[in-house]
Design brief:
alpha/beta; 3 domains; Purple Acid Phosphatase, chain A, domain 2; six-stranded mixed beta sheet
């Protein structure tokens, strides 16, 4: 059986207010071609289908149109919810989608058995079983009374994740003995490389899960959440497929991938590069450097390349900020679009508020970035600082859960 692993589609994503609708459309068309050419039997989508818990009508339309394109290829589809997704929104049409051989597990169901999905071959025999575990929210993993200290709460979450996968493995063994099993997950594993666009989860990523705790039962673990494709150190093959398109400028140099397994050959996946549908460029330097780089941009026939401009000068000069504005406003090179600009001056250290006002847009700031600045302004003891961060991350998680439940 041939299996394709992807994740972190983030349908509806906007990069500095620029819609990535066309990027995802080209990816889906390419993915359909790969599925057809490789004769893929099973498609796994490991969370963060949408970028927002309450996606726009255009994002929902693109999601359903994509599923229709994929379903026509006679390929079974299993998708799980991520931390960006609303479980209720993903689960709402699951009965209809099931008739199309599309299984959606938006949030952890009351009975874990519902996440165990048998996959049948042409002879109508179970050839593979999937433990489709969605993003595990704090409420899924621990009670309010579990853990008094900061360290106890972190340990409770790690143990909760481990217990969930161990129980899923036990169900697979009991219900489908001798049948190989794959687990899906959406979590933050210890020792991996992140980018700027993942939202912190489970106590601000402090409860990083050690992949060795997956054990040795599953033949493969298909992970989502981290946007850079990579292998995680474990006894068994554990992989993040990464996001299929760049979702932040920190990902501009990443090689985007999908992963393909052939169970008859090996449980080690084959990595397939996703084409570059659009480039993200970061242009830095003084005014002369930036102007020169603007004038040497090459023609291309892809989607418009998006540009971040970072002016770096030695001496602070308001006229240079004005000159940068003029340069950016007069930029009209076909095939390119400037989506962000900022100015930095090496000889002047500004306060946080001033730096944010001049060099960053509000939409670019994570809540954790702002809170970190506030915490750093106080001389807290380490234990006190940990408790403050724990409380902040719990509040942030409650807000995300409230957003999801409201949708």
């Amino acid at each position: 059986m041939k299996i394709l692993h992807t994740a972190d589609w983030h349908i509806g994503k906007k990069l500095h207010k620029h819609d990535l609708f066309a990027d995802f459309e080209l990816f889906i068309d390419w993915l359909c071609q790969v599925i057809s050419e490789e004769k893929i039997d099973l498609l796994l989508i490991s969370g963060d289908v949408f970028d927002l818990a309450n996606p726009s009508s255009d994002a929902r339309k693109q999601y359903y149109q994509s599923l229709i394109k994929l379903q026509k290829l006679d390929c079974k589809i299993i998708a799980t919810g991520g931390n960006h997704d609303s479980p209720a929104m993903l689960d709402a049409p699951k009965e209809i989608l099931r008739e199309l051989d599309i299984t959606i597990i938006g949030g952890l169901p009351e009975k874990l058995e519902e996440t165990i999905i048998p996959v049948f071959n042409a002879e109508n025999k179970v050839e593979l079983v999937i433990a489709a575990i969605p993003f595990l929210r704090d409420a899924d993993l621990r009670t309010a009374n579990e853990g008094i200290t900061y360290e106890d709460r972190i340990e409770a979450i790690r143990n909760g994740i481990q217990h969930t996968f161990e129980k899923a493995a036990e169900i697979c063994k009991n219900q489908f003995p001798e049948v190989p099993a794959i687990a899906m997950g959406h979590l933050f594993a210890a020792g991996i490389e992140t980018s700027e666009s993942e939202r912190d989860i489970q106590i601000g990523n402090q409860a990083a899960f050690n992949a060795s705790q997956f054990g040795d039962f599953f033949k493969y673990v298909a992970l989502g959440h981290i946007h850079k494709p990579q292998r995680v150190s474990a006894e068994i093959p554990v992989f993040y497929s990464g996001s299929p398109i760049p979702l932040s400028f920190s990902e501009r140099k990443d090689d985007k991938r999908i992963l393909i397994l052939d169970s008859e050959i090996s449980w080690e996946p084959k990595s397939v590069a996703v084409p570059h549908f659009r480039k993200l460029l970061k242009i830095t330097g003084d005014l002369n450097d930036i102007e020169l780089k603007f004038n040497t941009l090459e023609d291309h026939d892809h989607l418009d390349y998006l540009i971040e401009v970072d002016l770096i000068e030695e001496q602070y000069d308001a006229q240079k900020i004005y000159a940068l504005d003029v340069l950016v406003n007069n930029f009209k090179t076909p095939g390119y679009e400037i989506v962000k600009q900022r100015a930095q001056f090496k000889n002047k250290l500004k306060g946080t508020a001033e730096l944010y006002a001049e060099s960053q847009q509000l939409e670019d700031l994570k809540p954790t970035d702002v809170f970190a600045e506030l915490v750093s302004a106080h001389d807290y003891e380490e234990d006190t600082k940990n408790e403050i961060w724990s409380a902040f991350n719990e509040i942030l998680e409650e807000i995300h859960q409230s957003e999801n439940s409201a949708n």
